């Protein structure tokens, strides 16, 4: 069932994005007066089709459910070349270069517009996300050495306001990629605490692996509530020791326990060893001896009790105009960050393992779909941005390759010679297959 769910989530995420992309090409081609012969959802053999409209455009569904295309009247292909003089003015290559640029660019632009719309809708609806309050950190961590303390709330990074954990990570990833210092603006645990600043040095930011857990590497973890027992399972160490629902764990072996994660870590490291667990029960302080059982699979300690560890949540919300502005800003920043990552991969500053393919996309699609509608829509928005950026890369056979040809035509005043175009197309197909092979290889490595 999980596999079916993942495949359906993948198709539901990628299918509409490709359709929207191709609709961009179709709509602008019609506006520019170019005759559209076929609009296909999917690739390969056509399994269903109908003709509509004054031009009798064929709307088709093809066998391979990934991809799609718009086939226009085009003299370069014998199967799509005009068959009568009346259609000549509506042939693609006879249009001026600016119309051709508009038609080709319309696909990626449609993906960016869709991403802005989805993000704006999410901002207007309001997103529940973990806040930026920090859990107590190790004294050797980068953030502790910079003067940050547990319980403090990050309100800005390098002058950019942050409300949620996602926004905090976003700004720190940006600083790591740019190899810049990250200046944090924080306030203390009390709401009216005076703000202060802490600087994470540029050399420490540059050394981070942008593909890994950047916040964890800096020593930053989400704030968690105090460790309260939510449920005690029968016949387990917790039940035998007398732990009860509602008990607040305050200490283990005399050492304070700050949150549920600290409690779980202490238990996991003490399989078969007695622990003196101090709990606050109402107004009474009680110490109970608890000996964790050894988990037969992991070998770690377990006490068979559920403990509160959900992070502090905030609602990120905006009005209609502000939401559109936020959506446009997030789309632009994501696009710029993607381009920077690609550039750094090319020069070897970022590992090629960051290239992901359909297996990883499907896996993340399934995970976000199971998490709820909001995470899934946000995932679709980010994939739409990635699709737009990737199509704008100056690789022949992609939209960006065609835009490169037309840009050269604008500069030189004449079209690219057909022979050079053919060679570039072959090279582009080869490069595209190499990238696809690398992406699938990375996917399989992650999977296995």
From TrEMBL:
Recorded topology in the membrane: Multi-pass membrane protein
Keywords per UniProt: Hydrolase, Membrane, Metal-binding, Metalloprotease, Protease, Transmembrane, Transmembrane helix, Zinc
Broad class of the protein's primary localization: membrane
CDD domains referenced in this protein's UniProt entry, alphabetically: cpPDZ_EcRseP-like, S2P-M50_PDZ_RseP-like
SUPFAM superfamilies referenced in this protein's UniProt entry, alphabetically: PDZ domain-like
Domain PDZ, residue spans: 207-268
Spans through the membrane: 101-124, 376-398, 423-445
Enzyme class, spelled out: hydrolase
Molecular function GO labels: metallopeptidase activity
Coiled-coil intervals: none
EC number(s) per entry: 3.4.24.-
Required co-factors: Zn(2+)
Location(s), subcellular: Membrane
KW Disulfide bond (keyword) present: no
Source organism, top-level taxon: Bacteria
UniProt keyword annotation of Transit peptide present: no
PROSITE patterns to which the protein is assigned, alphabetical: PDZ (PS50106)
Record family assignment: Belongs to the peptidase M50B family.
Name by which UniProt lists this protein: Zinc metalloprotease
Species assigned in the record: Massilia pinisoli
Gene this chain is encoded by: rseP
